[in-house]
Design a protein that fits this description.
Strand order of the largest sheet: 8-7-9-6-10-11-12-13-14-15
Strand content: 15-25%
CATH topology of the largest domain: UDP-N-acetylmuramoyl-L-alanine:D-glutamate ligase
CATH superfamily of the largest domain: Mur-like, catalytic domain
């Protein structure tokens, strides 16, 4: 990748994505002109506009600001795109046809990872929570960090942290093999359950890519792996390798786990002295594992036991990751980004654990035709654990329809007959008589647009 010498501006294709918007903020902070395109206006794009970005919502060359529209001046700008941008995009092809310097988001992150001591978190589940936990622990410690996050950290209300520190925390995204551009000092791998089979073809090919990611660690770097996956991965010979989990052989493990009101209390065993009396203000065993992984990475970065304890104790979570949006007299409403059967299972387990005996209604929006096709049975089994299910019509994202693949496909496989498929237009009316207990919104598509309307409806009902 060319450097930033003589560069005046950066244009982002897909600027509204959570990862892209963090990069946009990064370059804005450095004084560059930052512009971009996205298909739809969202809260993220509105905030970027308020911060100084010029954003277009029409895939048309006529929308380009002057700095980016003249091919004769293309040496003054960089173009960054996400693989979610379709190949037929008019803007993308204009830049390609006219000799602009074009890079994937992952390539830009790769450059940043080589210039700092990067802590990269990979995994088909948990990477956003773990990376945000690490960033918070380091930020509240004497070490500090910058961070590119895959969600909005509730402690800071942003997906970008900037600090004078040698450490940069970032998610390592397996989609399109993006994480193979990174060169971390410390890497965490949380899970390698099959996903993105539209990219990899087979689960074995995806696991092989995770092994390649492990070999991207710097010489004498540190790998931290969930105890259940270490035997499945190809590992480098010159790295320090730790495991985490709850097993007796795990290098980092949570012990003496006790459930308190709205949180867990536990001790953390490490290769050195234990970290005693951690109080994690999040429910669910999955978050104990996430906290263990985050504490392990922080310990390897030199954070003290006291600062690990303080960081985890003050961690507020991530928007759309077990995000409690409303607590009323009759209903508690939780929103979660879960879009894989294992993630839904973890969410339901946490809800059942902390609110036992309650009726649980879930609203799930399938994301991608290929993922729905590949995991329809898994989705059906996970959703069967709910008492009542509303299935929103499928969110296609970047994909064209596949015949026979829809939300109805999941509904037909479910044993629980308290399931309905509803359109976006019919969702709010369908919730008018929602039973008291728990209400969950689940998915990675545009289901997040219903969070505020649902919250308003529940508040009015509770008044």
């Amino acid at each position: 990748m060319r450097g930033l010498t003589n560069i005046e501006g950066i244009y982002f294709l897909g600027i509204g994505g959570i990862g892209m918007s963090a990069l946009a903020r990064y370059f804005l902070s450095m004084g560059y002109t930052v512009c971009g395109y996205d298909r739809t206006e969202t809260v993220l794009t509105e905030r970027l506009t308020d911060e100084g970005c010029n954003i277009a919502y029409d895939d048309n060359v006529d929308t380009l600001p002057t700095l980016f529209s003249d091919p004769a001046e293309n040496d003054k700008v960089l173009i960054v795109y996400t693989p979610a941008i379709p190949k037929e995009s008019m803007l993308l092809n204009f830049f390609r046809d006219n000799g602009y310097s074009i890079y994937k988001r992952a390539e830009v992150l790769g450059l940043i990872s080589r210039d700092t001591d990067a802590i990269a978190v990979a995994g088909t589940h948990g990477k956003t929570t773990v990376s945000t936990m690490i960033a918070h622990i380091l930020t509240t410690s004497t070490i500090n960090c910058s961070a590119f996050l895959g969600g909005i950290a509730k402690n800071y209300d942003t997906n970008l942290l900037l600090a004078e520190s040698r450490f940069t925390v970032m998610e390592a995204d397996e989609f399109d093999r993006s994480f193979l551009h990174l060169s971390p000092l410390i890497s965490v791998v949380t899970a390698i359950d099959p996903d993105h089979l539209d990219i990899y073809g087979t689960a074995e090919a995806m696991v092989e890519a995770y092994g390649q990611f492990c070999h991207r660690i710097r010489s004498r770097g540190t790998l931290i792996l969930h105890e259940n996956i270490i035997s499945s991965l190809s590992l480098p010979d010159d790295a320090t390798i730790y495991t985490y989990g709850t097993g007796e052989q795990a290098s980092f493990r949570a012990v003496a786990i006790e459930k308190e009101e709205g949180r867990y209390r536990f001790d953390l065993m490490t290769p050195g002295d234990p970290v005693k009396d951690i109080r994690l203000p999040l429910p669910g065993m999955v978050n104990i594992l996430n906290a263990t992984a985050a504490a392990a990475a922080s310990w390897c970065a030199g954070v003290s036991a006291d600062d690990i304890r303080k960081g985890l104790g003050t961690y507020l979570g991530v928007r759309r990751r077990f995000d409690v949006r409303f607590t009323g007299r009759e209903i508690t409403y939780v929103d979660d980004y879960a879009h894989h059967p294992q993630e839904i299972n973890a969410l339901v387990s946490a809800v059942r654990d902390f609110w036992p005996g309650r009726h649980v209604t879930g609203i799930f929006q399938p994301h991608l035709y290929t993922r729905t096709r590949d995991f329809a049975e898994g989705f059906a089994e996970a959703l069967d654990r709910l008492d009542e299910v509303l299935l929103l019509t499928l969110y296609p994202a970047r994909e064209n329809p596949i015949p026979g693949v829809s939300s109805d496909m999941i509904a037909q496989l479910m044993k629980n007959r308290s399931v309905r498929v509803v359109t976006r237009e019919d969702l709010i009316p369908a919730l008018a008589g929602v039973k008291k207990g728990m209400l969950l919104t689940i998915g990675a598509g545009d289901i997040d647009r219903f969070i505020e309307p649902i919250t308003v409806m529940l508040k009015e009902r509770d008044a």
